[in-house]
Automatic annotation (TrEMBL):
SUPFAM superfamilies: Thioredoxin-like. Signal peptide: none annotated. Gene3D superfamilies: Glutaredoxin (3.40.30.10). InterPro entries: Glutaredoxin (IPR002109), Thioredoxin-like_sf (IPR036249). PROSITE patterns: GLUTAREDOXIN_2 (PS51354). Residues 125-191 form the Glutaredoxin domain. CDD domains: GRX_GRX_like. This is Glutaredoxin (GRX) family protein.
Amino acid sequence: MGCVSSHLLNHEDEFGTSALGVGHHIVSLTSTTYGLLNTLDPPTTTTPPPPPPEIINSWELMEGLDTESFRFSPLTPPSSKPSHKENTNPNLNLNLNLNPALKKPGWTLSDRFERICPPNGEKKVVIYTTTLRGVRRTFEACNAVRAAFDAFGVQICERDVSMDSGFKEELRELLKEKMVVPPRVFVKGYYIGGAEEMLKVVEEGLLGEVIQGLPRKAVGGGGVCEGCGDMRFLPCFRCNGSCKMVNKQKQGNTVVVKCGDCNENGLVQCPICS
C-alpha cells in the first residue's frame, strides 16, 4: 500500500510456501491513517435544522378585549400596522383621579374632605385602629393604613380602640354613629375616611400633598419609641396595672377603690409618644 510501516511477508520463511506463490503485505495502521479511512465513509443520517422561532403578536391576541376591565389606560399598539378603527368607547382613557379639583394649584383638604377634628388633632395624623385579630379583614386594613403613613415617615397618633374603650366612645361621638369599624383616619382635623378611602388617596398619588407640613419621624433608631416600643400604652405607674387602689380611712379601715389614672385594662398612654 505504499505505507512506511508496511513490509513484505515471506511465506516461505514463516508460513511455508504459498499456494499461489505470491507474497502478502502486512500493514500497521496508525491513528492518523485510521481517521482518514473513516472520512471515506460519511454518516448515512443527518440532523434536520431546528425550526425558526414562532413570532406571537400580542396585539392581535388582545384585539376585541373589553377595556373597561383594565385599571389603567391601555398602551397604543405599535405603528407597524395602521389602524383605521375609530375610538368609540368613552371609557378607553381611564383616569384614577376621581376629583379634578385636587389637581388644581392651591387646593385644600376642605375641597374634598369633611371638617371633623378629633381631640388634639389639628396638626397631626390621628388613626383609630385595633390590634385585636378577632376579625382578620379589619386587622389587615389597620396594618395597611399604618404602613401607608410609615412609608412617608410621618408621625401618627394611633388610638387603639381595643386597648382603651374611651377611644371607642370618642370615635362614636365624632362620627355620630353607634357602630364604627376601624380604621378611621383624620389628617389636620379633616376626616379622610376608612381603609378604602385612605388607600384611594394613596393610589391617586395625593398622600404626599395631604401630609405636607406635618412632623416626621426622627432619623435613626428605626423611629421606635424608647418608652413603650410603639405599643402606645404602659402599665399604670400608680396601681401597676391592677386597676385597684387601697384607700385608708380615718377609722383604720381600708377600702379598695378603682384607680383613677388608668383605663379598664390598667394601662396609661405612653407619655413620650402619645
